[in-house]
Amino acid sequence: MNAGGSGGDAVSEEERKRRRLERFGAANGGGAELSNEELLKKRAERFGLEFGRTSDTTSKRSSIGDVEKASLEALERRAKRFGICSEQAEAEMKKMRRAERFGLNKS
């Protein structure tokens, strides 16, 4: 903390940046930013993926129906275990109770 306000802080800041660059390095050595496409290619190489391949994403989107079917099966199992608790059933029960309360014949 330099109270005099001289250029000592700027030098120390530059020195910190240089040390950080030495520690962590830069992909292209100069510290210039890589383009988005280059970054995606490097990431694909790092994770063993093929860059620019879109057939996997379309096949994954088609598997959403499988998830919905699986959750539908889970809901059916839950309905068997606990009984059906749907909004329609609840509405019908409310109507029946109201009819009993007011003495209406509902057939």
Structure description:
This protein has 5 helices and no strands. 67% of the residues lie in helices and 0% in strands. It has a domain at 9-82. The longest helix has 19 residues, at 64-82. It has helices at residues 8-24, 36-47, 55-62, 64-82, 87-102. By secondary structure, the chain is mainly α. The mean pLDDT is 75.
Structural class: mainly alpha
- Amino-to-carboxy terminus distance: 88 Å
Q: Would you tell me the overall average pLDDT?
A: 75
Biggest sheet descriptor? none
SSE string, helices as H and strands as E: HHHHH
Radius of gyration: 33 Å
In total, the number of strands is 0
Could you name the ranges where pLDDT drops below 50 across 5 or more consecutive residues?
none
The number of helices is 5
How big a fraction of the residues is strand?
under 5%
Helix content: 55-70%
General shape: elongated
Protein name: THO1-MOS11 C-terminal domain-containing protein
Region (Disordered): 1-37
InterPro entries: SAP_domain_ribonucleoprotein, THO1_MOS11_C
Domain THO1-MOS11 C-terminal: 72-103
